[in-house]
Amino acid sequence: MSSNILTNRHDFLLLFEVTNGNPNGDPDAGNMPRLDPNTNRGLVTDVCLKRKVRNFFDLFPPTREGATDNGYNILIKQGAVIEREQKIGEVAAATSLPQGTDNQKAEVAMKWLCREFFDLRCFGGVISTGDGVLKGSAFGQVRGPVQFTFGQSFHAITPLEVTITRCAVTKEEDAKKERTMGNKHIVPYGLYAAKGYISPAFAEKTGFTDADLALLFQALLSMFEHDRSAARGEMIVRGLYDFEHVGTQHANNAEQNKREARLGCAHAHVLIEGVKVALSDEAKAAGKTFPESFGDYAVNNTWTADNLPKGIKLHLRHVGPDAVIGPRQS
Question: Which residue, among 290, 107, 109, has the nearest Cα to 187 in the 3D structure?
Answer without folding.
Answer: 290
